[in-house]
Amino acid sequence: MDVLAGIKKNNFVVVGRVGMDLFTGPDGATETADQFTADMGGSSANIAAGVVKLGGKASLVTRVSDDAVGRFCTNKLDHYGVGRAHVKPIGGEFRNSLALYESRIEDHQSVIYRNSAADFEMTIEDVEAVDYASYGALVTAGTVFAAEPSRSATFRAFELAREAGIPIIFDVDYRPYSWPSAQVAEEVLSKAGALSDVIIGNDEEFGFMAGGIDKGMDKARALAASTATIVVYKMGEHGAVTFADGAEIRTGIFPVTALKPTGAGDSFMAGLLASIADGYPLKDAVLRGSACAAIVVAKPGCAPAMPFPADLENFLANHSGPTHVT
Q1: Residues 6+ apart with CB under 8 A from 187
Q2: 85 pLDDT exceeds 80?
């Protein structure tokens, strides 16, 4: 399998949730706010929207609640140009996820509602309805594995993607509140990582899979040496190390005055994939992903803050450049 060739098709099937975000204005505190802005949320949906805004194609596979909030989410997918032929409603008491977060760094609060989450009701039949060979790669984020039947469905999607000859791209994206226990999360996320061709995670997430944060770098290195083609080990303000083809590529970040801490990882993934698809060398693609992350944390919202190509090029042209990492 040629992983880069798959990504360069710039057409992704993205498995995972779409939700509603409610966020305050700049410096707003939730407990005193009387107005919120509503937009699309959910890691997988944000990644898909980011890819589309940067010129690619993306289709989502998930379940949404059969109510006004679910329809809000599907309307937003249409707004961002994300395909939703495989976004199915589910009735009963299942509900779309809801995130309330603040556009501030100091004392920032994010409150996530995931009770009886509709996206966890995605089934094996849902993923078997997808024609994986019509896409260049499958993308997902770790939360999709946190509960059944979504967990088994996503592993089935991995099998079908492998059979279709397309690469699997996995953002570890560990969210403790979604999992029944840390032990289950460690086992399942490690299994997903071992099946993936491209793995992206931060130092805490790789450390979590390895059984200690001090072992995270070695875990990332070992995955790149055995099963994965590309592994990106993110270290926050200290940049990232990308493992590929036996090399270790160290890159910095683009310092900005951040408005909020949310959305950076989703935007990084979208920018990385779009830049590889556009033919940039891997190091440049990682840096462009980092620039996309910087753009998003400096603006309100997640999906609406994702850059278009002109926004990214303008940022790169006017920024002093990434931090130097040795």
Answers
A1: none
A2: yes
Name the class of domain 3-318: alpha beta
Radius of gyration of the chain (CA): 18
pLDDT of residue 210: 87
The 10 Å Cβ neighbour count of residue 199 is 29
In degrees, rounded to 5, the angle at the alpha carbon of residue 52 between the alpha carbons of residues 50 and 56 is: 120
CA gap 218, 246 in Å, rounded: 14
Query: Is the distance from CB of 95 to CB of 65 less than 8 angstroms?
Result: yes
pTM of the shown model: 0.97
On whether the CB atoms of residues 317 and 254 are closer than 8 A, the answer is no
In residues, how long is the chain? 326
* pLDDT at 27 exceeding the cut of 80: no
Q: How far apart are CA 56 and CA 8, in angstroms?
A: 10
In this prediction, residue 326 carries a pLDDT of 67
